[in-house]
Specification:
It contains 6 helices and no strands. It has 133 residues and is mostly helical. The protein folds into 2 domains: 18-86, no CATH class; 88-133, no CATH class. The longest helix is centred in the first third of the chain and has 27 residues, at 18-44. The protein starts with a helix and ends in an 8-residue tail after the last helix.
């Protein structure tokens, strides 16, 4: 229970970081916000092409297969690294997440000869690698 609470607090501290919120807001304006403003401005000023373009883009965003959220987060992380390179705490959390994901989902290749997933390393140490020579 304590571990879950500690992780929850860490996630909230990371997500509510002012630097990250600013960068996420800027990234959202790049990917989505302009279209919402375009619909509003196009409607207010009776600019049909702006309303049509913005509405079409927003309709595309609402389809389930669009990767807009992933792109927004990637832009936010890029902006965070460019705008706040001295924010060591937030960047450390991102680096730890990157390391955890790369070591967890790295597949064993014949060139390196060893496993990278923790459960496969344990099997290898126990002599249960499942490979036949």
């Amino acid at each position: 229970m304590k571990v879950l609470m500690a992780r929850t607090i860490k996630v909230f501290q990371f997500l509510l970081n002012p630097h990250l919120i600013l960068c996420f807001g800027m990234a959202w304006m790049i990917t989505n916000g302009w279209a919402y403003l375009g619909v509003a401005a196009g409607t207010a000023f009776k600019c049909e092409w702006l309303t049509a373009l913005s509405s079409a883009y927003l309709a595309f965003l609402w389809f389930p297969f669009t990767a807009e959220k992933i792109v927004t987060i990637a832009i936010a992380v890029w902006l965070l690294r460019k705008m706040f390179p001295d924010d060591e705490k937030t960047l450390k959390v991102l680096e730890d997440l990157k390391i955890r994901l790369t070591t967890r989902y790295t597949v064993k290749t014949p060139e390196d000869g060893h496993c990278c997933r923790p459960e496969e390393k344990q099997k290898e140490l126990n002599g249960q690698s499942g490979q036949h020579i």
